[in-house]
Design brief:
Blueprint (H helix, E strand, L loop, with lengths): L36 H9 L19 H11 L20 H9 L19 H14 L9 E2 L8 H9 L8 E3 L2 E3 L8 H14 L22 H11 L4 E5 L9 H10 L2 H6 E8 L4 E8 L3 H18 L6 H15 L1 E2 L8 H7 L1 E2 L1 H14 L4 E8 L2 E10 L2 E5 L19 E3 L1 H4 L3 E2 L11 H11 L4 H11 L9 E2 L2 H13 L4 E7 L5 H8 L2 H4 L4 E10 L6 E10 L2
Parallel strand pairs: 1-3, 7-8, 14-15
Antiparallel strand pairs: 2-3, 4-6, 5-6, 9-10, 9-13, 10-11, 11-12, 15-17, 16-17
Length: about 550
């Protein structure tokens, strides 16, 4: 089983910024006695909205998806980072930059693979879900699910529970006993959005943790207090024993939170950090003892090796999809899972050839980073045990990549599998769980390849080569079978062109893999083909629920 031996956890970051009380009402169509007036005025004063027309806010108007995107993008300082967005219906829309920014930050999705539908109304549960996704991206932990008189859809319950538990929507949500009434399926109005947004702005930091930040000014990050700057440098240098000077005894109570903040912004450091002890002499000196899974020299070795490895596996002209596959293949080909559970680092993996999932994720992180591909390390559970893997950003979309689970036990030299190569959240959640705040992974990878070809970001030959070399060509519509006859068509097509490997998937309700293959691979199918030997491997399809993936290996006679 895949097991993570050592993990640290992050604490939620507290907002350093608060919205103050409202000023005089700026909109003629908002009554001074309205329960929403303070929220609307706060947003106007902070530059989040200037209404729908001079002096007009349109408080009772239904909120559209375009308006939601602008509210959130402006309020939380998101900007278009230049990466691609799949929506074809926003190209000339006034909200396009806000939609792109919110999508790139992982806050909003489309109504289909290629459409955003900007003028579609936003339901109250949908608004809660998108705002809660933003909250999770800033480290806010999910509360226990609440009870409802008018229950939201199942997918929205965590989000609606979250916004209500945080007190972000208290204007016309009501509670009777232990049960809440939220009117989840009603369309949200602009004034209701103002309340939800103003409350969440009070509790969340004013900028995202992703690369999409909207602030285009030349403001520099505020200088850290001297003790924080000193502590941060010691941590980044992976020093084990050191002291810092505090100017105020109260600063001692801030140490744990600041360390968690440093770790949250440095994935590699976070996952090699092991434990810490620190004490205060009561006057001005704090003394630290910290242990890591790697020494500074060992981490430097990993970095140097990453440069060498990437230089050897990445060819000129490769696109990011191809670079990621090269990294995936290198990790799987050069590591084996450490069943003794002794090695937990990338250094152990490189020097001893084996490590647990933490080491797999760390080495994958370092190689992808060296190759210029944005990625994160995800902490969660899989197979009933603690587990880590990676999130990778390709062509503007995030995907789950689990190199550990693509390298199953026992290790087989030369075996490469892609069952956990670029999955969406929904696909990954079949056997992986996580509670931390991570960018949303919602774009199907195979569809994204098609879109990359259409947009010119990737040529058709490279796309087809990637699908074939990963076996993901079996995940396309033409290689998906809902009947025995469809399986036969796929097999006959592959055999007639003497393919040595045929990959496809079939609806699991057709029967076991043995039964399906026996029914499909008849004498009629192979009678005119000089087939020597046929073997096959199978397993649950990780990309489409209710289907079984099959890889058929064929040798042909002379």
């Amino acid at each position: 089983m895949k097991k993570l031996g050592l993990l640290t956890s992050l604490v939620s970051l507290l907002s350093l910024w608060n919205v103050t009380g409202a000023s005089a009402n700026s909109f003629a169509d908002v009554s001074n006695t309205s329960p929403y007036v303070s929220y609307i005025n706060d947003l106007q004063r902070l530059g989040v909205t200037d209404g729908i027309a001079p002096g007009q806010f349109g408080p009772s108007m239904t909120l559209t998806r375009a308006q939601f995107a602008k509210f959130v993008a402006v309020a939380f300082q998101l900007k278009d980072d230049g990466s691609s967005v799949p929506f074809q219906d926003i190209q000339s829309h006034w909200a396009a930059p806000y939609v792109r920014a919110a999508y790139q930050a992982g806050i909003i999705d489309g109504t289909s693979v290629s459409t955003f539908t900007p003028e579609q109304p936003v339901k109250r549960e949908e608004a809660a879900a998108m705002v809660w996704r933003l909250a999770q991206s800033k480290g806010i932990a999910a509360p226990a699910a609440l009870k409802f008189q008018d229950s939201p859809d199942a997918w929205a319950i965590p989000a609606v529970s979250g916004v209500l538990a945080k007190g972000w929507y208290d204007v016309d949500a009501s509670k009777s006993g232990e049960s809440w009434s939220y009117r989840p399926r009603d369309n949200m109005t602009r004034q209701e959005m103002a309340a939800l947004l103003a409350h969440s702005m009070k509790d969340l930091p004013g900028s995202t943790w992703t690369s999409a930040t909207l602030d285009t000014s030349t403001k520099k990050e505020a200088a850290l207090p001297t003790w924080q700057q000193s502590l941060k440098e010691h941590l980044l240098n992976q020093e084990t024993d050191f002291q810092i000077t505090l100017d105020d005894p109260n600063e001692f109570q801030q140490i744990k939170g600041f360390i968690n903040e440093v770790l949250a912004n440095n994935d590699y450091l976070h996952y090699i950090y092991h434990s810490m002890k620190y004490e205060y002499d009561g006057i001005s000196t704090a003394t630290f003892n910290i242990s890591y899974l790697e020494s500074k020299a060992q981490s430097d070795y990993v970095s140097e090796q990453a440069k060498t490895i990437v230089g050897s596996i990445i060819r000129s002209g490769m696109n990011d999809f191809e670079k990621e596959k090269a990294v995936h293949d290198y990790v799987i080909s050069h590591l084996a899972y450490d069943q003794s559970l002794n090695e937990h680092s990338a250094y152990g993996g490189l020097t001893k050839g084996s490590t647990v999932c933490q080491g797999y994720a760390l080495l994958t992180y370092r190689l992808l980073t060296e190759a210029g591909i944005p990625n994160k390390i995800v902490e969660g559970q899989a197979g009933g045990q603690l587990h880590t893997w990676n999130l990778v950003k390709l062509n503007g979309n995030w995907y789950h990549l689990d190199t550990t689970w693509d390298d199953p036990v026992p290790d087989v030299k030369g075996r490469l599998t892609y069952h956990y190569f670029n999955l969406t959240d929904a696909q990954m959640q079949h056997d992986h769980t996580w509670t931390g705040a991570y960018p949303a992974a919602s774009q199907d990878f195979i569809q994204a390849l098609g879109q990359a070809v259409q947009s010119g970001a990737m040529d058709a030959a490279s796309s087809q080569a990637l699908l074939s070399s990963t076996g993901l060509s079996g995940e396309t519509a033409e290689n998906t079978a809902d009947s025995i006859s469809a399986v036969q068509t796929i097999l006959q097509r592959g055999l007639s062109t003497q393919q040595s490997q045929i990959t496809f998937r079939f609806k699991s309700s057709l029967g076991s893999s043995q039964a399906v293959m026996k029914a499909a691979l008849t004498n009629r199918i192979i009678s005119n083909i000089n087939v020597g030997k046929v073997t096959y491997e199978f397993g649950p399809d990780t990309r489409l629920t209710g289907y079984t993936s099959v890889t058929v290996n064929v040798t042909y006679g002379s």
